[in-house]
Amino acid sequence: MLFNSLEFALFFTVVVLIYFRIGPRLQLGFLLAASYFFYGWWRWEYTSLLIFSTALDYTIALAVARSKRTAIRKLLLTLSICCNLGVLFFFKYLQLFLTSIATALGWFGAEVAAPNVSETMPWYTLPIGISFYTFQTMSYTIDVYRGVVKPTRNPLKVALFVCYFPQLIAGPVLRSNELMPQMDETHRWDWDRVRVGLWLVMWGLMKKVCLADNLAPFVETAYSDPTGHSGLALLVATYCFAFQIYFDFSGYSDIAIGLAMILGFRLIENFRRPYLAANITDFWRRWHMSLSRWLRDYLYIPLGGNRHGPGRMYVNLMLTMLLGGLWHGASWNFVIWGGLHGVALAVHKVVHGKRVREDVGLNPLKIVLTFHFVCFTWIFFRATDFESAWAVVRGIVTWQGGAPIAMWVPVAIFVGFTIVQLFQEKRGAIHPHVDRAFLRNPWLVGGFVYTLFVLAIAIFSTGKADFIYFQF
Predict the structure, then answer these.
(1) Set 328, 341, 348, 352: catalytic member
(2) For the segment 30-84, what is each residue's pLDDT rounded down to a tens digit?
(3) Residue 413, exposed/middle/buried by CB under 10 A (0-12, 13-18, 19+)?
(4) Cα 337-338-340 angle, rounded to 5 deg
(5) Domain boundaries in the chain?
(6) Which of 48, 107, 189, 352 could link 356 by a cystine bridge, Cβ 3.0 to 4.6 Å?
């Protein structure tokens, strides 16, 4: 069930109408049932994975809290991590693993064909959102082990934390102490909160439907046949993808935050104008912020962080970004993408040392350089394999001839987007897309703006299209 579909609009309307009519004691169970229905709309049988992850970490978290022996606590935590990552590996990385083994054996002269897992097991497919909810449920057990949170004895809370439908499929990745305490609050209809939530939903839908989906054809045309397009076409397509993935993913996050806000829940910010970052460290403070935080707190710091000298710090940084790249998909292209960012982060720390900080103000040269490095790495993220990625790079560098590409649509989007982002950066919005001036406007003005949004979505819609991060 896509956010940009009539089915979801009907589903959410029914949820809201029932949710605010029933008593507080029933709201938690109702939201849980609605979340399972939302996920089951895709494939009911895969809700069993959600239930398995929930039951596993609910049980282990309670056992960890009860145990006084460090060895037992570590064993339980290891069991949780291995089971969660085992499920993720089976559904997401098994084919890559088998193919890589076959390729490695071929280097030693053994001709071994990797089995096609999808043909062997016809039911086998990647469960949507598995990377997101796996990381989220793991964080709960880890936080209980660390003593950051106390385990709850209410299984409904853990279940809703794992599968809360606004952010189930593509985040933001939350911690239990950010969502569970809100389940104890009384949620009533609030017009001001609903107004801001609707604004975020409309803004996110516009970014997805009007911008991302209309940039997608330019990207697909060029990247599906890089040798048949000119260097200029490949360059424009790369810029298009940089904005497509931003509009698509940040649009989902805006919708998720807005939907949760309407229901009375507060989700964390996930994007903060990343293409205005003045360096690569600043970029990762602004892009997919919830994942960046997860990788820092649950991978980089446990590996040792910067506590064991510069050399170990660079190794930890590279491992974190390589695994972060692999988290995005079962392809070595994602590992290359993560590795490039890891190298850039390490170089930035080498150059600036302890003076690494978020740049204050707008530095056009640094912003342009950072943006183009990020665009270069997006080539490996978007291309289907290394050969295609290299063909795109070679085509741009050699400025090869080939089919041109119509540019007025992407250019118009780039210019308009840049103006809006600079305006928001200067004004300092309450939320990146909720300006204070809008909140002071009367409902009549707001209604007019909502009407324009709906018209734009209806006019520029290219049909229902999956969000890019559904595949991760």
Answers:
(1) 328
(2) 999 999 999 999 888 889 999 999 999 999 999 999 998 999 999 999 999 999 9
(3) buried
(4) 65
(5) 23-184, 192-278+359-471
(6) 352
